[in-house]
Amino acid sequence: xxxxxxxxxxxxxxxxxxxxxxxxxxxxxxxxxxxxxxxxxxxxxxxxxxxxxxxxxxxxxxxxxxxxxxxxxxxxxxxxxxxxxxxxxxxxxxxxxxxxxxxxxxxxxxxxxxxxxxxxxxxxxxxxxxxxxxxxxxxxxxxxxxxxxxxxxxxxxxxxxxxxxxxxxxxxxxxxxxxxxxxxxxxxxxxxxxxxxxxxxxxxxxxxxxxxxxxxxxxxxxxxxxxxxxxxxxxxxxxxxxxxxxxxxxxxxxxxxxxxxxxxxxxxxxxxxxxxxxxxxxxxxxxxxxxxxxxxxxxxxxxxxxxxxxxxxxxxxxxxxxxxxxxxxxxxxxxxxxxxxxxxxxxxxxxxxxxxxxxxxxxxxxxxxxxxxxxxxxxxxxxxxxxxxxxxxxxxxxxxxxxxxxxxxxxxxxxxxxxxxx
Length: 422
Ligand code: SF4
Description:
Blueprint: H1 3-9, E1 14-18, H2 37-48, E2 52-56, H3 59-65, E3 73-78, H4 84-97, E4 102-106, H5 107-111, H6 113-120, E5 124-125, H7 131-134, H8 139-146, E6 153-156, E7 159-160, H9 171-174, E8 178-179, E9 191-194, H10 205-217, E10 223-226, H11 232-237, H12 240-247, E11 254-256, H13 264-276, E12 285-290, H14 296-309, E13 312-317, H15 357-376, H16 383-386, H17 392-398, H18 403-406
The structure holds iron/sulfur cluster.
């Protein structure tokens, strides 16, 4: 049943929007990567229909804040499949507290609608976006959703879906491909975060970047950021986009490098388009997926290439999201603090490509040390120096030294320029 029909059928005057208690640190709730943008858009739409809205972002608040608020409908959002238990808990709490229809939407709901309905016990599952919500384009309506949160940035989409079908990605199951011609009438904040899956694939990207450039010149926006990596194959076909991205104020650009080491020449050319456009190598990242089909050894080779180019690495550990990995797609208890390691009973390890718990931890450590060196402009990394466990004079004296010199004075000096065997 369509959401509009559900609203009419239930004569909805008040709606409760619930973000389950996902394992996100409280201080990160308003971080640009975690804002429940789907709920904010629904809130804006409902308000435009004169429906009173309340947004709840913590379980504790669910109890406290709803004492005097009796909703006629509840919308619960979902994220990754391996966080589905938090969605179930939220739905159960709502069911016990209110006798009203509960709709679950979001990523998990869209990827596994049947499972979501059965497992959470909700009344309706919203698969994909709500067309009526997606149609809202005016600032007055859109900004009403942001009245519910305290953030100084705005999340935007210039496109939906993605024309590609990368193996580890479920975007094509959730969103139909759609490209907007213009976004300037949607902008009401100065900092813009783009949630497009593949922003450069928008066939009107040149027009959109020119709109942003104009707004930047008028000081109506200060900067832009793309949450996903840029599709470098498109950059190669349209290198002029590099300059437009820079002029539009896109900061910290990321180039996706999901493929093998043999693609390194292509990636180098893509990075050059960005450096020619005026980006410093150290502010660029290559976006890599590990614990998937490329083994540790090849991923480490890719890291060394990134070091030669002087760029950072944004890493993403592969976690199954659908039933093709049924056994694993409902939990992820990876804990980076576990010194004695964990097993595949705790989280998904892509054993078929030779990944092990220790290789996963080693690769993550290498990436972190690599990025610290790039950011600080140093030629070695030392955990002891970072934790101030060596005399200040020694740390200061050798801070900018070459690795070959530093290793004689700092025991744990780590060389980012070489391959580290597992
Ligand atoms: S390019 Fe990105 S969004 Fe598109 S299918 Fe591949 S991983 Fe997914």
